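Re: weekly structure request thread

Next one in the queue (805 aa):
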Amino acid sequence: MKRPAMDRTVTRLALLGLLAFLTACADTAGIARRPGVQAADAPQLEVFRTVLVETGTHSDAVTSLAVDQRETLLLTGSTDKTARLWNVADGAPRGVLRPPTGDADVGRIDAVALSPDGRLAAVGGRSAGSTQDAVLVFDTRDQRLISRLEHKGAGSHTATVGRIAFSGDGERLAVRYAPSDAVAWFDVRSGEELSIPPGPQAVLVQGAAPRELNLTQQRRLTANDSGRVALSDASGRPAWEVAPASLGIDCVDALGDGSRVGIVVAGGARLFSAAKMEWSRDAGTTFQCGSLAAPRHLADGGLLQSDGARIWRQAPDGRLVWQDAPNQRVKAMSVSADGGAVVVALGDGTLRWLDAVTGAERLAVYLHPKGGWVAWTPEGFFDHSDEAWNFAGWQVNRGPRREAEFVRLGQLYDVAYRPDLIRLAYTGRAASAEAIRLKDAVDPRGRLTAGLPPLVTITVSPSADRRTAVVEAEVAERGGGVGKLLYRINGVVVAIDQPGGEAPPASAVTLHLRRTLPLRNGPNQIDVVALDGANELESAAAVKTVAEGRADPRQGQLWAVVVGVNGYADPSMRLRYARPDGEAIAAALARNGASTFAGTHVVQLFDADVTVANLTRTVTTMSETMAESDTFVLYLSGHGVNIRGRFHFVTYDVTAPTLTQVLTRGLSQDALQDLLARIPAGRAVVVLDTCFSGSSIALSDNNMLIRSADRRLARATGRSVLAAATDQQHALEGYRGHGVLTAVLLDGLNGAAAPQTEAITDRALGSYAIGLVPVISAERFGANQLPVFSSVGQDIVFVRPRKQR
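Done, posted below.
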């Protein structure tokens, strides 16, 4: 929203501990969260030094294949340090085996084997831990590491595993080591090395582990250096193929300061902008490509070189300046035209920006072949397109005798989603480290070392009439405590439990909870997520599906809560357009709703009525008579604040611009999530038109802050969110008596958002606002205001078609 002129002095939290955000629509610093249930014996965790790509396929060379006796299960091992399980019949993934890994080639897998019944998988190569030739045995059903087989013979600390085979009964394992060709036998379960192997023998064939297997019915399994795995039928035709999700970058050319990078792939040349995180529309640019083996000459007379495994800078006198050994093969490299940055393309499909002087990594971006991308800093802050946060994450080692854990970036969303920091990373400015130092951000990597997220399993029992389902959840604490549980149906948060608030004994590491949830019409995907004790780190979702739900069949009604705060108690916080904006939106919803919905219920709350207690009471009362077929709208106009990346709406309760007041009296993201979880309506949208600010880091524009708030709220609630940030100039002048976003929405609801033959939906309004608000802002104010719309679920029809086609 907008505000009149006021003192622009900003008091930094790092100095005084106050939030003078309203004097410049900005805030600083963080928020301490009370932990929930926490176990006393949290394991020692080691987070691998860099974020890893995970797309469900191998990202580097497949070194070996194995199948079970019935030829139903396939196991593949790779230099990408994972082993993967697949259905032989159709290539569907069955699981990932994650050995503990280290730098360079530690964790590389060179040989794999499956027990005859397919229940056990053995992998070996170059292991993490004191004994590098160890073989790791996993249970294929839950991918748990059950034993570590360590050879005690001479040279065991330098040998690598060359070939593995199970005995016929699956109880013993034979291992051939390289380069000595020595063979050792082990008891699979105990890990004990056997001097004389009793029982059925295993057959160890000479040579390297196979990358091709002939199966019955003249079928053939093959794999290659790119990570491709395929099955061909008796005629040689492909039955299925799993290809790596990588662009296959052959050349990079860092233009200017490295913010734009030319990329050459098999399909042609493209240009990617790290400043805007998008493919550039520039055409006709010629890229300079050279062989990876050819040194790049630097302005100081030094050289930049790579052998595919390493990249290093050499001084003019031959001294080594710096050296890096990435987790993946180096495929291409380039030095920016200004000499400040090195851009490297790796085999996993990522681009890495390195500081040319120190070799320190600034930024990494994974580019998916279908157009999605996810970018991250060395600390683990990230930005993404669409659902692409699932393409990368952290590997957490739990010691040499336990399987590693993979935590996707999305599980740290509330901590690590920081598009504002990503936009500064390629320049080399240490904005992420600065944000952590000023307590404007939680260190994502440090958060992981404090404890793993809980582990959740669920059972779902639908009622006989399919209107409800009972969800029973078992939550195992794993070192980080247990906070709140989120219950989602088709992506919408419909209930929240807070077991950590009941403070059970610290020794209680497993919780059992039971919830009855209302079902939607049609398929219902039910998932449950548990957060850690700080409510910052999510578990992997436990998912079940109820094929056919039957909700209340009543015709849908419109319910809306419209909020606007002009008259804050502190004169410096008062606004001009929040209340008029809210009144106009309420009138438009009521007018259009009369001809679109079975009933329309609009509650307006302004100024002194906008308290957290009143908002909670209003929404709760509405929810008691609301049905799944209904639509809900929440419109918030007033001050908005970003604290550690989390959104806070400043209600009338906040009587002074201090950090304590905003955190204890304002409407937090968690409170808003709880409010929306009470809404049974199947369709809902939140609109934020706020004088928005936040972060103690100097940013190029506040659009990154509102984008962060929009996506966080949409993900936290499962509801659509339309938001725009307003700066001081908009506040002083306004646009046709309203804020720009609200003025555009009013025009859209009056018919401008869609042709008369089409319905005006939330998506149509979002697209209309995204197209028009930047134009008005630029022409009227010379400003760059970019609305953000996160659309979730089904369309909301606000105005039916006015004419037939």
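The CA atoms of residues 411 and 538 lie 5 Å apart. Confidence is low (pLDDT under 50) at residues 1-42, 501-507, 694-701, 728-732.
Next request, please.
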